[in-house]
Amino acid sequence: MGRDKNMKVGKTVKTMMAAALLMLGGAMTANVAAQEGERIAAVVNDDIVSMRDLEERLKMAIINSRVENSPEMRRRFVPQVLRKLVEERLQWQEATRQGVNLTEAEIARTLRNVEEQNRLPPGGLEAMSRRDGIDFNSLLNQIKVELAWLKLIRTRYSGSIRISDAEIDSQLAIIKSNLNRPQYLLAEIFLSNDSASQEEEVRALADRIVLQTRQGAPFSALARQFSQAASAAVGGDIGWIYEGQLPAEIEATVKSLQPAQTSNPIKTLTGYHIVHLRNRRSGGQQDKSNSVLDLAQIFMPIPQNMRPEEARIQAGLVQTAASAAENCDDMARLAKELNSPQNPRVGKVSVGSLPANLQAVLADLPAGKVTPVVKNAGGIAAYMVCSRQDESAIPSREDISSRLEMERLDIQARRIMRDLRRTAIIDVRI
Q1: Is the model's pTM score more than 0.85?
Q2: Backbone angles phi, psi at 235, to 5 degrees
Q3: 174 falls in which pLDDT band (50, 70, 90)?
Q4: CATH number, position 382
Q5: C-alpha pair distances (Å), 269 with each of 193, 261, 349
Q6: Which residues are within 8 A (CB) of 58 and not within 5 positions of it... i.e. 6 or more apart?
Q7: Of 124, 146, 193, 324, which has the fewest Cβ atoms less than 10 A away?
């Protein structure tokens, strides 16, 4: 009896010891993970970039670039991600030193702009981050740095930049004289090279970025993550450029590209440029994707289990009703008579934001005209263009002034970054 009791006690003690060892092992694992996260990846003056910072940004870069999250891909991304983090530390330090303060309204407005660029609803950026397993604070910090840096550059230099009427007139004259020459819709990534000692590193980074674009990574995501030009905030987009507006070495490369192609790195005096040709057009053509249409529709649902004959009858009803409409008010009235479940007034949309099949029928449709019946999400519809606003081939004076100001601010920003890197104490520890 005493022996049985001792055996039970022994088993209990062993069980408790095993549980304690298991808990201790878990605590040690968690502690090791925490210590790993707090390891220093780089020291930038008196600030640090932790391994946790690097890990979160690596995750973000890989997801945004839509490449495989493999050890090899992570190894390739580390140098360019760490370089960007070091640059952001320098920008934040300088903005803080210069007394730049961000308001909650400015941060909220910038977040909303990013969401709109990515066609997300309000709050969609945080929801997408959670879905992808990204620490939203890491993304928020990146946005705050971009905002603070832009605010610093504008505060420090915009007052000294004066765009004269004569300069705007000169630009307008150049644009008008080039209307019949080829035009290129471009995006860019710029990597600065301030010294001969950085040459090999910067060139290797440029080569990796080009390789990633050719493996399917979106150019806009890579531009936002790694470009050092002001256009990084809008995915590298620099709009339509006329032949003759670019430096000779870059223009020669652009002429050789086909739409959707990305160039090899182009070396200039200031660094490396990578250009992506989004589209091209001959002189005088308009970019119909930027046209804004005010649309009305007659929509009818087509359930998946609807028989083909019934679907044809529905399509006939929609087409007959739309053909009888003389204006958009008629479209709304007829849609109501057919008990259409969707709002007949679609409102103003850009052609480029529409599905491809709708772009095809609406891009050149004049106001007051009706489309044939086309497939829509969950059904069919006919559309009428109530009004349209096509992009002018000649930009406004305000657009020209804004572009010239941004170009000059970008030059100043690059000079500041060059000076900050030269005087900084940077210790990379990985």
Answers
A1: no
A2: 70, 25
A3: confident
A4: 3.10.50.40
A5: 8, 24, 42
A6: 74, 77, 78, 81
A7: 324
